[in-house]
Design goal:
The protein is mainly α. The chain has one domain: Amino acid/polyamine transporter I (Up-down Bundle). Helix content is 75%, strand content 2%. The chain contains 20 helices and four strands. The strands form two sheets. It has a two-stranded antiparallel ribbon with strand order 1-2. It has a two-stranded antiparallel ribbon with strand order 3-4. Bound molecules: phenylalanine (PHE).
Amino acid sequence: MEKKKKGSFSGQLGFVLAAAGSAVGVGNIWRFPYLVAKDGGGLFLLVYFALILTFGFTLLTSDIAIGRRTKQSAIKAYETMHRGWKFLGILTFLVPVLIMTYYAVIGGWITKYAVVYVTGQAKAAAEDGYFTSFITSPVSPVVFTLLFMAVTSFVVYNGVEKGIERVSRFLMPFLTLLIVIIAVYSLTLSHTTAEGDVRTGIEGFLVYITPNFEGLTVSKFMSILLDAMSQLFFSLSVSMGIMITYGSYVKKDVDLNRAVGQIEVFDTLIAFIAGAMIIPAVYVFSGVEGMSAGPGLMFVSLPKVFAKMGVAGVFVGAAFFIMAIFATLTSCISVLEAIVSNCMEIFHVGRKKVTLILTVIYLAASVIIALGYSIFYVEVTLPNGSVGQLLDIMDYISNSFMMPFICMLSTILIGWVVGPKWIIEEMETNGERFTRKHIYVVMIKYIAPIMMFVLFLQSTGLLNLFS
Ligand code: PHE
């Protein structure tokens, strides 16, 4: 059978930007700042940085090395590693399959807000109930979701170098610039409250980075640790086959050690700057109590903060949501690409055909999820106790349930079945030195499987059964 020609990134920079494009998403600009505010500021930062250098590095290295060594996507790659472990490839493949049903919906919401700000309706967006009335409408969210999905498909349709790499090369520097500008502006803010107190952006920044040990107990520390771990996992786009697919497009002469380091730094830096952008702004106008969980922060609290900035807020709001579109688009592209590449390998069909078929399927699926707050509204209590609609259910199955489970199995596969040497060889393929080799081996064999098991118990709510 004739083998379809496989695409590749032009070189190290193209790969790093595309992988960072996948990694930098709503997780960095919305979830990370919220978790820092909730989990003791600098304390969370310290825990997160320590985990990135050990745990995050191990998972990212594994995925990318698996991809480049096998030159295949998840399903085939796991089969190549070990015949009996193809099931793990299939499980991994199912994660982007599920995420894709709702990612474009979130992208659509962000696009809608960008349009609202650019067309000068910032005031309306800050009103109570605006977000709820938007997502419960049966038309507008669908239109924006379809638009976002179509753009994503168009990029993937154009291939690895001409589509994904080209878009990432343009969007990632632009995103970085925008986020830095907004963060600097945020630090210069100051506001006098009704009680006559003056709150400044710099104070907000100190709240952000100062470790808060008040009321810290062992169980509180454990919950911070688990929050940091699941955040890191989601943020680096690991254990869902995405980095395996992107790794499979990396040429053999690229130094993976440097590439992994750069992706780690990029992703963490953007998350840190996002915190420096959001936390001081929210602090100045609403106090730290203003930080809310979930979509509320991005779509409800921030528009109120922008409104309090006066005229400047219209521009800052527009810049923020445009930046968020870039972050979400490059992530969404990576999710679709992981599905496309697996399908190309299994069905031996070309990129264009696979992309078109998947686009039709996901346009339909996204519409259903987008209507999950109106026509298809449901209330389901999830095993971890929260009540969710369709989008939350998909998110729960893929992120809380499947990802830790898959990650645990793949650390066992690498650590104990195939052996870490298999990865190490790939990291040293051009005679490079895999400097963090020892940490890698200890992490992959012992620490990561145990941590993943605990995370799995916690995020599925099973841990509560024991305590
Ligand atoms: N890594 C992305 C973020 O930090 C999230 C993501 C999840 C991207 C799943 C792709 C797939 O927001």
